[in-house]
Amino acid sequence: SGELYCSLPNPRNVRFESVNMKNVLHWSAPEGTGDGVLYKVKYSVYGVGKWIRKPECRNINRTWCDLSSETSDYEEQYYASVKAFLNGMCSDWMETTRFNPLTDTKIDPPMVSVSSTDKSLSITLTAPEKWKRSPEEESISLLQVYPGLQYNVSVLNKKTKKRWFFSISNNTLVVPWLEPGTAYCVSAQIHVTTPLLDSDFSKEHCIATLKDK
Amino acid sequence: KIFHLGACRVSMSTAEIRAGFTAIKANIQSRDPIRTLSILSHPQSLHKVKSSDRCCVAHHLFTFYVDKVFKHCRTEDSFVNRKISSIANSFLSVRRKLGQCHEQNNCVCGEESTEKFKQILANYEGLNVTSAAMKSLGELDILLDWMEKSQ
User: Fold this and answer.
1) What PANTHER family has UniProt attached to this entry (chain B) (predicted)?
2) Closest residue by Cα to residue A197 from A154, A157, A162, A150
3) Which of A137, A202, B7, B46 is the Cys-Cys partner for A109 at CB 3.0 to 4.6 Å?
4) Domain boundaries, chain B
5) ipTM exceeding 0.95, yes/no
6) Residue B41 is nearest to which of A47, A102, A195, comparing CB atoms?
7) What CATH superfamily classification does A111-208 receive?
8) Residue A34: its pLDDT value, please?
């Protein structure tokens, strides 16, 4: 392809960074090269014979490339590769390890909504959605992707500092026998047992139970 | 966990196998330089197997790994070897459970499942035995991803 003598140092740390299956290829610039380095990217489906160039990531100077669309089928696995160019010189192609969107993605915390009565809290949790190409595209909850998805819920009594933990499979939880007129803070995490995937805990959502009638 | 493989109900845990594989995945997959060929996922994907054929394909695959793959996967790394043998032991117990379904006639082998498994064996025999075994071991997550859809 008319490429020149490839003695440029290689891009480093070429890897996928994935959140909710938004799969972005990242890398670091070759050592010792200042500004002006350009890159091109290609990817391949594991088990299929050809590398495919990513036109939107041809001759780019940034060090990332969004391959979410190309790697959206999570029943497949992928490789991606990056090559650097500077002043007529080029580097070797530098590859990722094999990327499995199902096991190698990070999951965001669930959305938490809470309502209260005088003696109980009702907690509703919503799992994040899988990345999609456009808002019009049909949404797929990560609940559909991971059949074993569970929620770990933490409830803190702000007054006594007593904390409870619950592990639930469905997305609603009622916490009874609470103290009226007391502030409680709720936080939740997604837990998938296999493949083993845990989200961070969500931000705390604080609410007070109603005062005694 | 209960796995629904066609008419076969099997209670088993893949978490231990999964954890063992995750610990050695990068090491094992780096020993497989062939990107253009897969044992399990191409040209036909496991994910296209009909529900009624799932038990038979699963039984074939666990037997395939026990009889053909693990014994050819020794490495120079004792940590990796220990993980491989622990995975192999887990496979033995899962295969036994699938075998029980087979004996109870809940594991029917239709034409499609037989064809599917023939394709996998052809992929395997297309490589020398060590490369084929290491590639198959590196594809364990493909098998587990497929199995775990049946929870």
Assistant:
1) INTERLEUKIN-19 (PTHR48482:SF3), INTERLEUKIN-19-RELATED (PTHR48482)
2) A150
3) A202
4) 2-148
5) no
6) A47
7) Immunoglobulins (2.60.40.10)
8) 83
